[in-house]
Amino acid sequence: MRSLCRLSLGLSLLAVLTFTSVLVRAPSAQAACVNGQETYVDPNTGTVKTRVCDGGNPGGGGTPGTGGPTQCTRSTGEAIPCTSGSARWSPANDCYLFAMDQPAADDPRWATSGGTPETGRFYACDDNPQLWIYVANGEAAPPDPAELAQQAFGAVQLTTPTVQLAPAPPAKSYVGLDTWMWMPLGQWAPLTNTVTAGATSVTVTIEPRWVTWNMGPGSKVCYDAGRVWKVGQMPPGSTTSCSYKYTRVSDFQPNGAWPVSAAITWRVNWTCAGNCLAAAGSLGEVDGPAGTANLVVGERQSVNVLPDEKRKS
Predict the structure, then answer these.
(1) Is the pTM of this model over 0.70?
(2) Is 44 buried (19+), middle (13-18) or exposed (0-12) by CB count in 10 A?
(3) For residue range 266-306, what is the model confidence (pLDDT) as tens digits?
(4) Distances (CA, A) of 64 to 4, 14, 83, 84, 123
């Protein structure tokens, strides 16, 4: 009697495992990957969309666990590694997927998934190994948002400062005199650009941090556009946050003038919207192109004039 009970329990467990193993998640799309793009029907809305693809395994890196970004994000917003051993994070399934031995062509799981051995592969989800997930060929994870950010940044023309000086060339500046430097205020402004790939959009924001003024014999770092000098409108004792005091004349420089240049250093941050592996990041600080000018620097000579009676004695 005890043997019959064990046999009955064993058959019941086998039935449960057999039923569980054929559970699959329906494919979100089945489409051909052509030139890195594919057109598919969104199963949630029924609308036709396009997305980035690479014809490889989920995550876009060929074998799961290789290539691609290193930082991914759960649906809860938690930052996690994009790989775990040989498994790769799948944002679409919100779990790590690892490759499995594929079932035979006549296995009922193919029919349940809506696919075939020719149209896709099965993967297992780490949070439920009994749940086999069908992934259509060409269905890839979102692109690395940092790479899209690089594309967006590369398409932006960084501002070249228009060098403004007071005294203004061709007038001279002088040793010991504060030479004012500035650029038009509109050139000290953030720049933005957005790149979209499939359901992923990345926007870069490029903000000016400081400007390096190379004045010839030395340099000055300023943290704004500088103050405009207005001839005849500046009250006595006016000051600026961006000026330079020469200690040497320019007589022995080529063309008798000091070369002057100004280049902005920019901070490049990005944010991701849509289907994203990460919500935000930074490309760091980047030096922009330099605007140039030339400034003649002289030296004031003082002349002492004696009174008439002193000259006669």
Answers:
(1) no
(2) exposed
(3) 999 999 987 676 788 999 999 999 999 999 999 976 555 55
(4) 45, 31, 8, 9, 10
